[in-house]
Write a structure and sequence with these properties.
The complex is a heterodimer of chains A (180) and B (112). In chain A, 79% of the residues lie in helices and 0% in strands. Chain A is mainly alpha-helical and 180 residues long. Chain B has 112 residues and is an all-alpha fold. Chain B has one domain (2-51, 64-109): Helix Hairpins, CATH 1.10.287. Chain B has 4 helices and no strands. Chain B has helices at 2-20, 24-45, 68-99, 104-109. The chains are: A mainly alpha (180), B mainly alpha (112).
Chain lengths: 180, 112
Amino acid sequence: MIELYLFLVFMTVAAFIATEIKDLLAAVISLGAVGFSVAIIFILVQAPDLAIVQIVVEVVTIVIFVAVVFRTTHVDETIGKKLTSSHVLSIVGFAFFALLFFVATVRALQELPAFGNATMKVASEYIRLGLSRAGGANLVGDVILDFRALDTLGEATVLFTSVIGVIALMRSVGRKKLKA
Amino acid sequence: MIIFLSCIILFLIGLYAIVTKRNLLKIVIGFALVEYAINLLFALIGFRSGMLAPIITQVDAPHRFVDPIPQALVLTAIVIALGTTALMLTVVLRIYNRYKTFDIAEIRKLKG
């Protein structure tokens, strides 16, 4: 499992670079590095469906990000500016919250089964009935499209609502006609 | 435990970008990092060492699979993350076209 640790370290470093670098295009590329290492970790923990979806979504996300950077500016001009009092306050507040959150999650994660020993009470039923009731060999597909199909319907609703939002915000032709 | 904590660290890096950065694009990047962290935590919780991906290849053989339910939940969450990120970036692009800056302090000053 050494490769899993390597990718986790790489992912954390890339995430830190993405938040701190001055060039916005480099920040977007670092975000892509995080997303693709997440996809590789999905393969390592035996989740090929997730890896496929993550790669497709990551490519689309990076394309949208790069399109926004090309239409606007490359330089993050807020890095290196003098700190205002509200900025310092936000950093102090974040540090306080992060400490509390970290302590709380360490205590909560001790209650979970250790890595590699998942308890599968509900899933054992799905695995037993998956092929006979839903009729698909891929159990993830069975859960999404049959056992929990209403959840997937809600997800599709959210996706198409966001598409409607993007179209409504991007159209500029209608607005000019209104003014004239 | 250490593996789960690295997801929490990624979450906190994303939250740091959301709370303390003054550049709008960096804030969107922070949201994307938080989404990755949560998806990864779910996939790691469902893992069982030595087990296979949940795809049935032999009907009568004993099933030795990782947990399929977290994978199914994360699969929908990944696609929703794409929708929210696209919507946020559209709003950011509109704000830039109007104010010609990503700095949220400048945008607050230019209001009205």
